[in-house]
Write a structure and sequence with these properties.
The chain is mainly α. It has a single domain (29-128), classed as Arc Repressor Mutant, subunit A. The chain has 6 helices and 3 strands. The chain has a 3-stranded antiparallel sheet with strand order 1-3-2.
Length: 129
């Protein structure tokens, strides 16, 4: 089998296993990439990462989120509002309390992936010493 035919077959198998393979002929959906970048930029803040981590098990009232962060309500509400605007969080009101939860569970998976990468990088650096 010629090398180019082997590559074509291999790429076809990869696309069946892992979804579409990006090639030069595959158009890039820049709007989708921009939305992904916006979400990543939004969560790329220590307070927001703490909020998402705290909300991973389920919804919590703003007062408990403030207590967890050790931060004042206006500060926490600002971060909650930013993440809600990007579709990362959702909220509901019950009387005078507002409850938030992670609406887009994919964000948690991405954060876990980044965390694992950081842990692996730290272990690799420690192993080099």
């Amino acid at each position: 089998m010629q090398v180019s035919a082997y590559i074509d077959v291999h790429m076809s198998l990869l696309s069946l296993e892992n979804g579409p393979v990006m090639t030069q002929e595959t158009p890039i959906d820049f709007e989708l990439i921009q939305r992904a970048a916006d979400v990543l930029k939004t969560v790329a803040h220590p307070a927001r990462l703490k909020i998402i981590d705290y909300l991973e098990p389920g919804e919590q009232p703003v007062a408990k989120i403030c207590k967890c962060l050790g931060a004042p309500q206006p500060y926490v509400s600002h971060h909650l509002s930013l993440m809600k605007a990007k579709g990362i969080l959702s909220s509901r009101r019950d009387g005078n309390q507002v409850f938030y939860w992670v609406a887009n569970r994919n964000v948690i998976e991405v954060i876990h992936c980044v965390r694992r990468h950081g842990e692996e990088a730290c272990m690799a650096v420690s192993a080099e010493k």
